[in-house]
Amino acid sequence: MITCPQCGALVSAEEGPTHAYYGAAPGCWALYGEVLAREYEDYRFARLHRLTVDSYAVQHPGRPEPRTIQSVVVHLIGLQLGIESAEPMGPLEPVLQAAADASAAFHWLEPPASLGAVTVVDVHRAGADAAAHLAAVRAWGESTWAAWASHHGQVREWAAMVASRARRRR
């Protein structure tokens, strides 16, 4: 077992593929792939898929460079909207696409020392029980969003900017 250098989860020490710039340990990336497969294979697991993707991405921020800046900000906006929005948002994709298109306006946000107490390992452990999986994903999203608290103001500002751009495109 090793500690993932990004999210801090204890994962299998294995060789294998990983993401081009997330900086995850191969064992962490493999667990994420298994969680995604569960969500893609059975619709009962997919309701919070956006939180799964956003949580994993911001727990693996990589190093400061244009594509990691874009990734972290887009996924933080996704978390902010998914966790804090009290009203039905409709599809988030137009807003997140507007965020990706506006990435030149973003800057690097220094990751917190702890990226959240809940990780992909906890979601993976939920196993084949859809309710347990969804509860773990919700806890993961909330934990990850809370970890980035020092940047919430900036993320909310960017989210408002890109939501406005997305509305103008409709």
List the helices and strands and how they pair.
Blueprint: E1 2-3, E2 10-11, H1 26-41, H2 49-58, H3 66-84, H4 93-101, H5 120-125, H6 130-147, H7 152-169
Antiparallel strand pairs: 1-2
Helix pairs in contact: 1-2, 2-3, 2-6, 3-4, 3-6, 3-7, 4-7
Structure description:
Helices cover 56% and strands 2% of the residues. It has 170 residues and is mostly helical. The protein has one domain (2-169). The chain has a two-stranded antiparallel sheet with strand order 1-2. A hairpin with a 6-residue loop joins strand 1 (2-3) and strand 2 (10-11). Helix 1 runs antiparallel to helix 2 (49-58) and helix 3 (66-84) packs across helix 7. The radius of gyration is 16 Å and the shape is globular.
Instruction: Give the C-alpha Rg.
Output: 16 Å
Mean pLDDT: 92
User: How many β-strands, per DSSP?
Assistant: 2
Topology order in helix (H) and strand (E) letters:
EEHHHHHHH
- Provide a count of the helices: 7
In short:
By secondary structure, this protein is mainly α.
What tags apply to this protein structure?
single chain; 170 residues; mainly alpha; two-stranded antiparallel sheet; 7 helices
